[in-house]
Amino acid sequence: MTMLHPTLHAVTERIRQKSRDLRAAYLQQIAKIGARARGTDRMGCANVAHAVAGLPANDKLRILAEHGPNIGIVTAYNDLLSAHAPLRTYPEVIKDEARKLGATAQVAGGVPAMCDGVTQGTAGMDLSLFSRDVIAMGTAIALTHDMFDAALMLGVCDKIVPGLLIGALHFGHLPTVFVPAGPMSSGLSNSAKAKVRERAAQGLVGREGLLDAEMKAYHDQGTCTFYGTANSNQMLLEAMGLHVPGTAFIQPRDDLRERLTREAVRTVLGKTPAPGNYRVPPIGQLVDERCIVNAVVALLATGGSTNHLIHWVAVARAAGILIDWNDFSQLSDVVPLLTRVYPNGTADVNAFQAAGGPGFVIHELLEAGLMHADVLTVRPGGLAEYTQIPAVTQSGAGLHWVPAWPSKNLEVARPVDSPFSATGGLRLLTGNLGRGVIKVSSVPDDRKVIEAPARVFDSQAALQDAFTAGELECDVVCVVRWQGPQANGMPELHKLTPLLSVLQDKGFKVALVTDGRMSGASGKVPAAIHVSPEAAAGGPLAKVRDGDLIRLDAVAGTLAVLVPQGEWTQRETASMPAAQCAANGRGLGRELFASMRRNAATAEQGACTWF
User: Fold this and answer.
1) Which of helix, strand or coil describes residue 477?
2) What value, to the nearest 5°, has the Cα angle with vertex 121 and ends 115 and 124?
3) Does 205 reside within a domain?
4) Are the CB atoms for 303 and 228 separated by under 8 Å?
5) Do residues 158 and 183 lie in contact, with contact meaning Cβ atoms separated by under 8 Å?
6) 474 is in an annotated binding site
7) 587 within 8 A of 484, measured Cβ to Cβ
8) Domain span at residue 585?
9) Do 590 and 492 reside in the same domain of the chain?
10) pLDDT digits (tens, 9 = 90+) for 495-539
11) Positions of the chain with pLDDT under 70
12) Is 157 annotated as a binding residue?
């Protein structure tokens, strides 16, 4: 067996030690709950009657007389989201397969699923991050019916998977498998789409031309094909052993898709071929500190979404595990970048899958001692099963798995001994402006250190107006503040990417510094994001003034305003404009989220609203 990399061992041990008491309490709690009798045997007769009243007679018989296992389905289906539209048919497929195995399945509940692609740049994005915790609560409400022996989570996109996972971990006594839907087929390339957006930002392409390009890029059911938060979710679930192996990037219209959904039912019931009687571990036991570290390593090795520096902190906390950005940074120093998938390259996730996909990456990391091989997974073969790709057997009657290595395209996926970069795609930034992070995997080497005068904006719209007015044709560090969880819910500032890219392409030294988020598809412009403490909580960004010299150094890992210490200490901390503060909480349902804004933890604490 390959020796574990010493840094991986050290980070895992540090996490284990600082989480010891919280994790022990969590495990004790789920063990106590898991030791109870089955719901139908434990609950009152009226409770049970309500739970099965709507079922066919044969299903009632299985649950009540035969004591067959009952699977709770939590679904994020809606047909507004292209990635979630395929989930419409999944419950009936799951129920059919469960019946074949002497079990039953019920849709325990649905959770909301909003699309950041629809809400980018609108007031709806103010609810995006908090929707994760709403989804977690919806998952809890669904599973609180407490009639289930296992659970299947149906969801794919940005906040949906973290929310489902946080909710499921609060029911950590249940074996749980996640069931995705896969990416849409490739349309207009992500690079070509980005060029059209940049031309539109310059007024060179009108609305009709821009809409035509966007429609050609987003054209069918499935996730968007770039490697943003949604597809990063799927990579991380594979690395955590929570999927049927190799399920992540099989397209919705592929014949494999339904077969893999049926395999998820067999998996959660422990009905896969295995020596002896394999019992799928409860998700709360499976997701331990090793599992979390494996997820972080997979994120770094693939240049995944910066949103997961928030989401996976929250996921870990739900399992009684404490991680922070120091852990991400230390792992990033030793984890090589193995893939080039847009925005870190020109290939999309379909090309990544064709090159070997998650299975190839996991194989390489295991071989290098950069993943814990001895973790529990939902499959009896452990993480080794996740180094393979599913295929239909030659007879067409079933599934089998084939090795995902070696890479089929070295321009997209490379082995550990010849990576695209010796280190991961994320860096921690610290200095007198606070703590932030930067995604460096797609930033050109000559742009990783930017020193330029600040231009301070109180909103994304204000920066857009300045760009349109031609005020940013210079070397500039754009500071966009009042964008943190407590200020307005921490929306993504994705609309800024084309504008800043235009300025950078003109030769100007440009950077973004913000207490907000960028999209999971943030790319070539250096951006210090998630800066904490946020301005609304009195953080240093509230002191920055136009003209202050700011240095963002992604090589040294520093973020500083170059103002004399005495002057900086004495400088007054600004307050969010009263009108802006009021506007952040009004309209389009934002009033309902006031308590979340008040109680949100810092970005580095996962922006959680529930502890």
Assistant:
1) strand
2) 50
3) no
4) no
5) no
6) no
7) no
8) 427-605
9) yes
10) 898 899 999 999 999 999 999 998 755 678 999 999 999 999 999
11) 1, 274-276, 520-522
12) yes
For 45, other C-beta atoms within 10 Å of its C-beta total 8
Look at residue 190 and tell me if it is in a domain: no
3-state secondary structure of 180: coil
Q: Which amino acid is at 357?
A: G
Domain annotation covers residue 564: yes
CB contact at 8 A, 433 and 512: no
> Is the same domain home to 16 and 108?
yes
DSSP state of 572: P
Q: What angle do CA 511, 565, 532 make, to 5 degrees?
A: 45
Contact indicator for 238, 362 with CB cutoff of 8 Å? yes
Residues 390, 434, single domain; the answer is no
The Cα–Cα gap between 93 and 258 comes to 8
Contacts of residues 380-387 at CB distance under 8 Å and 24 or more positions apart, as own/partner, are 380/272, 380/274, 380/275, 380/278, 381/274, 382/241, 383/241, 383/294, 385/245, 386/238, 386/239, 386/241, 386/243, 386/245, 386/246, 386/358, 386/359, 386/362, 387/359, 387/360, 387/362, 387/363
Handedness of CA 64, 66, 72, 77 (dihedral sign): negative
Q: What 8-state DSSP symbol labels residue 531?
A: E
Q: Do 524 and 585 fall within a single domain?
A: yes
> Residue 228 has which token pair?
């943003």
86 shares a domain with 128: yes
Token code pair at residue 329: 């940074």
pLDDT, tens digit, for every residue of 350-391?
Answer: 999 999 999 999 999 999 999 999 999 999 999 999 999 999
Q: Whose structure tokens read 């789920």?
A: 30
User: Both 27 and 156 in a single domain?
Assistant: yes
Rounded to the nearest 5°, which phi and psi values hold at 392?
A: -80, 140
Q: Are residues 36 and 77 in the same domain?
A: yes
* Paired residues of 289 in beta bridges: none
